[in-house]
């Protein structure tokens, strides 16, 4: 059994202790608060605001108890298996040490850890990162190209169908295109402090993070298999992944780290650690044009304006000024990058 997957299962927050029914969605009000959400609030997470959409995703146990066709259950189980152990696609679709569940904790169900069910009910929709309307498959493909530093499964393939089926299973009971804001969506970040400290971030990382992720950011391995993912370096996500943006990293750290101790860091500490980590190198953004300044100019407005891509690093070097593609090398190209859509539609 994958140790990393088991460890995350033990530390899933409220969702692990609140399996009541398969897929519960409701609008938050002063008189209704799901027990799973009550547990989150007791841990220090914000209570849902009046009118927010609160959804408790169904579990795999709920799947077994459901009336879905046995073949459908098999496909959803396959999607769950791929989501929690994406490393089985290493060298085919994945070229680093990440799983989907490395960022989307609690099997993709956990609020404030970018629960993935939200994508299933808000897509297709416009996405600024690639400047067109994306469906769920395309959104997952982006994670493979950037967060996995890899190459996505083909649209409509067995693996892509399984992953989308798992996302949609988690969304069971949630309304499509909800009018309300979604409680616990994404990695909500605290307000940015006036100043960020690389030195303080480094000290805090060594004190709070290195025990799991190593002092050099290479992650933690046991018996040849990785247990905790690398936050930077060749085994990590590339410069195009969402979490390289400092505010996204700060939100992830504040709400989820150290593992098992969420919300234990101050806002300043979370931001400083994120700033330190974001100053480290990683594989090149697959949108790289061959010139870091040109790439920054092209993709800065839609993405890199909140990352440190192309900025001066701690040693005076320009971050991402390299052609290092990590394990996949320069010959393996994600086929989904730079594919325009709907160009024939008139305004």
From TrEMBL:
Q: Which residues form a coiled coil?
A: none
InterPro entries linked to this entry: Cyt_c-like_dom (IPR009056), Cyt_c-like_dom_sf (IPR036909), Cytochrome_c-type_DH (IPR051459)
Which UniProt key words apply to this protein?
Answer: Heme, Iron, Metal-binding, Signal
For the region Disordered, what residue ranges are annotated? 328-347
Q: Which domain of life is it from?
A: Bacteria
**Residues covered by the Cytochrome c domain:** 86-203, 196-281
- Kindly give the SUPFAM superfamilies that the UniProt entry links to this protein: Cytochrome c
From the UniProt annotation, give the residues forming the signal peptide: 1-30
Q: What is this protein called?
A: C-type cytochrome
Q: Identify the species of origin.
A: Halomonas alkalicola
